[in-house]
Structure formats: C-alpha cells, structure tokens
Amino acid sequence: MKQLKIIGVFSALVGLCSVLGAVEIIPVSQAEAVKPSKTIKTEYQYAAKVACSLLAPHQDGTLARGTYRTTVNIHNPTNKKITVAAKVALASQFGSDPGPFGVTPFKEAVIQPDGAVGVNCFDIAGYFCPIDGVCVDFAFLEGFLVVKSPVPLDVVGVYTARHTDGEVESIDVEAVEPRQIRETVKIGAEEPTKPGGKRVDYPPKGSSAYGDKEPRQMCGGIAGFPCPEGKKCVDDPSDNCDPARGGADCIGICVK
C-alpha cells in the first residue's frame, strides 16, 4: 500500500520526548525472556517503519484519516540461538528538538534457531510504559523499530489500514534491507511496571487527533499494561478483538 510507504513523513510528536523512555516488549513465540546484559556485539542493523493508530483512528492530518497497524516479523535463519537488540526511534517534526528520549534505549531478546519474533503496535507502545513512573497513552505513534543483530536476519514489515470502522481494507508487506554496521550495543536496565503510576495522553487532551472523543487509557493486552489506582481494565468494545470469541491478548480500556 503506497500511502504506508511513508519513510520520511514526519508526525507531530513534538514535546513528547521529555516524558518517554523504554521497556522491553518483544513477547512472542519462540522468543525467550532474558535478563538485561551489559553489551551485545552486532554487525547488522534493520530499520522498519512503524505507523500505529492506538487509542483512536488517526485524524490529525499527518496521514489520511483511518486506522493503521504495523507488525514487524523478525526471523533467525541460522541454526544457532542468537540475541538481538531493539529500540524505537520516534519520528518528530523536521527541525524540532527530539529531546533526550527521541530514541529509546536498546532491549534484548533471544531468538531460537529458525525462530521468529513478531512486534506489533501495542508491543511498541509498551516501550513507553513506565518511564520514571510515567506511562504514555498514544493516540497515534509513528517512527522506526530499529533492530541490531550479530547475523543477517529476515525482517519484514506488515502494514494494514482501514476506515475508522470495518474490516481491513489494505495490506502491504515490505522486506527491510540490512545495513552492515558493526557496533557494540548497550542494553538498558528493565524498569518494572508499577500500578497507579502517572499517565500522559499524547497528543494532549483537546488535540484534533481524538476528534470529538475523549482520550482513553489502554490496558491489558500482551504487554499487560496496568490501570491507575481506582480504575479497572475492561475489554474495549470498539475494537474487533473479542476475548469471549477467541481473541488472545486483547487490549482493554481503563474505567472507574
């Protein structure tokens, strides 16, 4: 889908970086949870485009109004277990100050021989909860998932889009070419999720990104996002994921 080949399109993520950071969210089949290590020696880098409507259909004018989803699939084609590192680089307005957290710290994941890792929009949003006790509820998130590896990988971005209501209308699959960059990557320390932490809406309340709807706090899902104190997590009836009908790891919303 042509409109999803949007490398170089800058979203209005100005001012967000002062509250952002990273946590490890690459929880998929054939991937092992590992403790953060000090460094990983890598030789290959992949930058996969990410465009995600999270809490509301995208409508602030940077892209066509609608709902966008991204999944990045990473395959280890070797017969050896490998450790890869990943981070998120947010796209900011051209010429703006990206701030200290425009690019998050790296986190690691182990991929089994011939194993595959899938990273979706909610996983990527999980990089930003919590950071110094703050979680960010994105209405829309745009940028890159940057993957570093000691060996060549198969990295593919899968992009879907639809109108604000209805089933998928468009899909595009893009193979991500590697750059050969030798680098020793420092792995950031994990920060445990604590319920009751501060939540920040991005864009802020009143932004055109929400239309006439109020921002909502997401929770649950495969990332296990918590709700603040005094609220509980319930299924979001506006999405097409129904846990009562076989939907696994559906994202929810926080209600009083």
TrEMBL record:
Bias (Basic and acidic residues) ranges: 190-202
Disordered, as annotated region: 190-211
Name of the molecule in the record: Kazal-type serine protease inhibitor domain-containing protein
Organism listed in the record: Nitrosospira briensis
